[in-house]
Each structure stands twice: as structure tokens, then as C-alpha cells.
Amino acid sequence: MPHQGPHPSAATEQVSARLTKAIETGDSTLRIQLRPHELGRVEVKLDIGADGHTKALVLAERPETLELLQRDSRVLERALQDAGLKAGQSSLSFDLQGRQGEDQTQQAQQGSDGGGSSDDPGAASDNNIDEHPIPATAIGLAPDGSVNFLA
Questions:
Q1: Residue 26 to residue 112: CA distance in whole angstroms
Q2: Rounded Cα–Cα distance for residues 121 and 106 (Å)
Q3: For residues 71 and 60, is the Cβ–Cβ distance under 8 A?
Q4: Which of 1, 22, 35, 18 is nearest to 75 (CA)?
Q5: What is the C-alpha to C-alpha distance for residues 92 and 76, in angstroms, rounded to an integer?
Q6: Is the pLDDT of residue 42 over 70?
Q7: CA dist 7 → 16, 60, 69, 75 (Å)
Q8: N or C terminus: fewer CB in 10 A for the chain?
Q9: DSSP state string for the chain
Q10: Contacts of 115 (CB under 8 A, 6+ apart)
Q11: pLDDT computed for residue 6 by the predictor
Q12: pLDDT in tens, 50-107
């Protein structure tokens, strides 16, 4: 019986090949300019546990490319497995570059607890802030109405 699934896209084949090489060399992040150029760039961030279980975040620059990669997710899972890692359907997550769920959550937390203040309201969404907020305790109000914190 012939193979019934659609042939993987050029984007998926390129990401799969580079993913395998990155695992062999021990790289946890890879950035790929896909060909043709119209497919845009893709970034893959790997988190490999001590037991070999793998989580991979695939970030695509273009929505069309993201859709192709999501459709062919089994090919990417197979590339992880072929490289000797444990991967399943929950191992891959996909998003558009600049719209990562973790960054949005972190920005929301910083906005709600007063961290990450800036004169430019759009600045927080343009920066990837890797610093963890320092817990602070309010110790009183200053005469000018500002709050004093003890960190």
C-alpha cells in the first residue's frame, strides 16, 4: 500500500535535517533561513531532559511557514526520535516569532507587579527580558506619594 500522507514541505525537510545535526553537535538552539527565501526564518529551541525526553519550541517568522511545520509535526517528531531522543505529540510546540506565550505571560506578570516599567508602553513587547523579578515588600509611602520597597 503506498504512503497515504502528503509529502513533507520543503520547510519541514530543512528544519528536520538541521534539527538532527544540531542534536548531534549538542546545540540547544538553532536558527535557519529557509529556502526559498519567502519561507522566512525558523528558530528551534530544544530542552532535553536527563532521561532523554525532549521539548522543542518551533518559532516561525511567517504564518504560512508555521502552518506547514505544524501540519508536518510528525516528521519533526521522527527527526528527534531518530537522533535518539524521546519525543511524542506533546514534545513539540509551535508559535510565531515575536508572539511567544512565555514572553506574553512574563510581560503580564511584570505589568501586574510593577516590574519592567518604561516610558515607552510598547517597549516591553519588543524586548526579551530574561531576568527574573526580585520579590519586593512595600514598607510604606513616601511623602510624595511613592511607595518604598524593601528587596
A1: 38
A2: 15
A3: no
A4: 18
A5: 8
A6: yes
A7: 13, 20, 12, 10
A8: N
A9: ----SPPPPHHHHHHHHHHHHHHHHT-SEEEEE-SSGGG-EEEEEEEE-TTSBEEEEEEESSHHHHHHHHHTHHHHHHHHHHTT-B--GGGEEEEETT--HHHHHHHHHHHHTT-S--SSTTHHHHS---PPPPP-EEEEE-TTSPEEEE-
A10: 109, 133
A11: 63
A12: 888 999 999 999 999 999 999 999 999 999 999 999 998 899 999 999 875 544 434 4
Grid cell digits, residue 65: 511557514
Neighbours of 115 (CB within 10 A): 17
- Cβ-based neighbours of 122, under 8 Å, separated by 6 or more: none
Asked if 41 contacts 14 with a C-beta cutoff of 8 angstroms, the reply is no
Hey, where are the domains in the chain? Answer: 10-96
32 vs 52: CA distance, rounded Å: 24
Question: How are strands ordered across the β-sheet holding 41-48?
Answer: 29-33, 41-48, 54-60, 92-96
